[in-house]
Each structure stands twice: as structure tokens, then as C-alpha cells.
Amino acid sequence: LQRSAAAEIAVAESTAALREIESRFLGKSGSIPALMKLLGGLDKDERPAFGQRVNGAKNHVQALIDERAAGLRSRERLAQFEAERIDVTMPGDRPRMGYEHILQLTTNKIKRVLGGLGFQYLESPELEEFRYNFDALNYPPDHPAMDDQDTFYVDDDHVLRTQCTALQGRVFESTPPPLRCFTVGRTYRNEAVDRTHNHTFHQVDCFMIDEGVSMAHLKGTLGVFARAMFGEEVQIRFRPDFFPFVEPGVDYAISTPKLFDGRWVELGGAGLIHPNILERYGIDTERYSGFAFGLGVERIPMMAYGIDDLRLFLENDLRFLEQFRGES
Ligand code: FA5
């Protein structure tokens, strides 16, 4: 019995196998305790010698098991260490880091530049009341821009704003001049989509009302703005244009020698705020005048990076967007 136990213990390959052997030989109903039970049936004088031998076998087997167990444990621990070994020299998996969208970067820059010129940034709703988008801005009742060919109507009184200029009435009705404010955000127009027009795009809209504000202030402000956005060599051209909310009205284009062969690209519209609007909000036109300008945000990175299709900005194709990783 002792020998067969020893043989089994010697080849036990795991702690679990050893435990099984232990219970078979030494456990409650194992073969060595079973021998002990025979003791009662023996002659009195045979008992001590038998008992001693069985005990001796029990201790011997227990010792073999303990010894083997210690060996197996250290082997198993080594195997576990090996399996869990970490190679600290392996290159790590970098977490995928997000980065700001090019339109967000442009918006941040616009905010820095206009904020630096003393203009206050204000939020204004994308789902806008018809009256702020049109009536407050001196549109006559039959103006074609109000046509649902051009404007997304949500109901009779609400539209998706077609221009960020809708901010003006909201400010004028609540805050007296002097004012210097701007907003940046999404605008929507129901128009045919092509490389330079989308149904959803972004605008900056900025205005200032104070004593003695003239076209010179407008040109000066737009000049600083354009140089901050496109660099020192940018040129700006103003031409007369019509918007119901300015008088006189202009559109302005920029040209830089680096891009589009120096061709003029229209950025937006501007002018002096129409006296009708100032009067409507009780602003004294003898004392105050103001300028306003608005422009397409997409036009800025288009010009700065030479992008010829503005639909790319909203398609979320990472091959396009990743090119602006790390820009500021
Ligand atoms: C306006 O929206 C006027 N609110 C601008 C303004 C503000 C004039 C203050 C005077 C005083 P306009 O419709 O031209 O004007 O649009 C201004 C600019 O937005 C355009 O020059 C262009 O850069 C951009 N834009 C207009 N429509 C789209 C479009 N569908 N997709 C992309 N950009 C557009």
C-alpha cells in the first residue's frame, strides 16, 4: 500500500491530482484509516505492532504528499508567473484620442479674435422665431428670401435660422447701446447643394452700435479680422450690395497670393445698420449708429487651406478631418 501510494505521489502532476491521492489514501474513508479499523478485530498482543506499522505508513505517506505538494506548488507558481509575465518593453496600445473638428477650431479662432477686439460672444437659437430672422431685420413682407424655396419652415412662426443676423433683434430689444456683440453658429437654407453651398452651414455675425460708428470702423474691424485669419498679405475688397438691414450695404471678398491664384473669394456681407431698425428698437439715431457684418465660417478654412468643396466639412470622413489634427 505504501509503495503504491509512493508511486502515485511521485507522478502526480498537479496539486489537484495530489489532493485526490491524499483523500484516497488518508481521507476519512481512505485505505489507511480503513486499516486502522481492522485493529479492533485483532488479538490484543498483535494490536500494538499493527497499529505502529499503520501509523508509520500514514506518517510516511503524509510526508511524501507534503514534500510533493511543496514541489508542485513552487512549479505551479513559476508557471503562473511565466504566464502572467508582462513585457514592459513592448510598445503600448495608444488610446484613440479625439481632436477638434476643423470648424470648431475655426470657431475658436473667431472667438479669440473678435473677443480680443472687445466684442462679446452671445448664443442665439438655431430654431428661430420668424420675426427675429426676418421682420426685425427690415424685410418687406414679400421678400423672396422668406419663400419656402429658400427657408426651412418649422411652423408658421418658426424657421431654422437662415442667418445669424437674427441675433440683432434679440439684443436690441433687451440691451441699450453701446453694444459690441457677435455670435457663431449653424444656419440653414433650403438651397441646391454644390461645392460652395450647403443646406447646413455656419455663419459669424457681428455688430457694433456706438456714437459716431462709420464705414471706417467696419473696414478697420474686418481688416484686423481678415489678417488674423489669413495672414498679413490678405487683401480685402468691398463692393456695394443690398441687404434689407443695412444702408449702405456691401459685400466683401478677400484674396491672398497663396491660394486660388489670388482670385477674389466672397466672404460675406456687411454695412451700417439700417436706421429703420435702430428706430424700431427706440435707439436714438441722432446719437447712435452701428455697423454689422456676417460671413460664412466654412469660407475661412476653405481659403486658409485651399479646400474647394465645403460639403467635406459635414461629411465626417476621418481621412479629411484627420488632416487638421493638431492645428489651432
Ligand atoms: C447674409 O446672410 C447676411 N446676414 C450677412 C450680413 C450680415 C450682411 C450683416 C450685412 C450685415 P449672405 O446670404 O450673403 O448674407 O450670406 C453670408 C455668407 O454666408 C456668404 O457670403 C457665404 O460665405 C455664406 N453662405 C451663404 N449661403 C451659404 C450656403 N448655402 N452654404 C455655405 N455658405 C453660405
From TrEMBL:
Tell me its cofactors: Mg(2+)
Enzyme superclass (EC): ligase
What Gene3D superfamilies does this protein map onto? Bira Bifunctional Protein, Domain 2
User: Which reaction does this chain catalyze?
Assistant: tRNA(Phe) + L-phenylalanine + ATP = L-phenylalanyl-tRNA(Phe) + AMP + diphosphate + H(+)
Task: Provide a GO biological process annotation.
Answer: phenylalanyl-tRNA aminoacylation
> Transmembrane residues, as ranges?
none
InterPro entries reported in the protein's UniProt record: aa-tRNA-synth_II, aa-tRNA-synth_II/BPL/LPL, Phe-tRNA-synth_IIc_asu, Phe-tRNA_ligase_II_N, Phe_tRNA_ligase_alpha1_bac, Phenylalanyl-tRNA_Synthase, tRNA-bd_arm
Which keywords does this chain's UniProt record carry?
Answer: Aminoacyl-tRNA synthetase, ATP-binding, Cytoplasm, Ligase, Magnesium, Metal-binding, Nucleotide-binding, Protein biosynthesis
Q: State the EC number(s).
A: 6.1.1.20
Family membership noted in the UniProt record:
Belongs to the class-II aminoacyl-tRNA synthetase family. Phe-tRNA synthetase alpha subunit type 1 subfamily.
This chain's protein is named Phenylalanine--tRNA ligase alpha subunit
UniProt lists the gene as pheS
